[in-house]
Amino acid sequence: MALAEEVILETQGLVKEFSGFVAVDGVSVRVRQREIHALIGPNGAGKTTFFNLLTKFLQPTSGAIFYRGRNITREQPADIARHGIVRSFQICAVFPHLTVLENVRVALQRKLGTSFYFWRSERSLGNLDRRAMQLLEEVHLEPWARTQAADLPYGRKRALELATTLALEPDVMLLDEPTQGMGHEDVSHVTRLIKQVSANRTVLMVEHNMSVVASIADTISVLQRGRVIAAGPYSEVSKNPQVIEAYMGTSSDSLSGGPDGP
């Protein structure tokens, strides 16, 4: 059990109902600082709903969310972002007609509260370029700095999304299906990037690719029908009879799920 001071994000008995349907049912999760915590579960388990509760796209029916020991249950999405909880989405969210460098620069402007720079000359934005290039180097995209985002292969677009997320200087990165729709080579590349950028950061990720989860997650929480049925390292969770049953009897080495439900 993690010491209280090690926990950065925690939910206690989180519940979300939709017209009588319970999508998240008493979920208690503790995410420790500087760990990669994976949230997995079969179709309809409630993973995306849980993410939406954390980022306040939805308000919980009951239960509580704590960040660094502070109750943030009723705070607004903008407040959550200001705390340093930053989310990426299943659909790659980049500006397709801006260059790779410009995409990261826009994210830096948002963090600095200088969005009005967007309307200034190219020269006035140069002071942000150095930091943008550092972030692109961190995700191995510096050779594509002047490339339009629309021209990037899908895996590189997800790497760009990581760079724009890092530009916001997150304390906690919420990654929603970061390898969804990728071929094997792109999955391997993005998995390595997540592991690399997680150094000294906290990552909570929803992921269906179990080889990804097995290779980089420190802790795994398994949801089924809105409830946590197991939590711990992959070596333990993958052998849990409830987890194996939840994945329709597949072996622990091939656990996988489809797109999430509510």
Q: How are the SSEs placed, and which strands pair?
A:
Layout lengths: L6 E12 L2 E12 L3 E5 L6 H8 L7 E6 L2 E2 L5 H7 L1 E4 L11 H13 L16 H10 L15 H14 L4 E5 L7 H14 L4 E5 L3 H7 L2 E6 L2 E6 L1 H4 L3 H6 L16
Parallel strand pairs: 3-8, 3-9, 6-7, 7-8
Antiparallel strand pairs: 1-2, 1-4, 4-5, 9-10
Helix pairs in contact: 3-4, 3-5, 4-5, 5-6
Summarize the structure.
This protein is of the alpha/beta class and 262 residues long. The protein has nine helices and ten strands. It folds into two domains: 175 residues, Rossmann fold, CATH 3.40.50.300; 72 residues, no CATH class.
Task: Outline the structure in words.
This protein is an alpha/beta fold and 262 residues long. It has 2 domains: 1-84 and 172-262, Rossmann fold (3-Layer(aba) Sandwich), CATH 3.40.50.300; 98-169, no CATH class. Helix content is 32%, strand content 24%. It has 9 helices and 10 strands. The strands form 2 sheets. The chain has a 6-stranded mixed beta sheet, with helices on both faces. Strands 2-1-4-5 form a 4-stranded antiparallel beta sheet, with helices on one face. Strand 4 (62-67) and strand 5 (70-71) form a beta hairpin. Helix 3 packs across helix 4, helix 3 (100-112) runs parallel beside helix 5 and helix 5 packs parallel to helix 6 (184-197). The protein is globular. The two termini are 30 Å apart. The relative contact order is 0.19. The model is unreliable at 250-254 and 256-262 (pLDDT under 50).
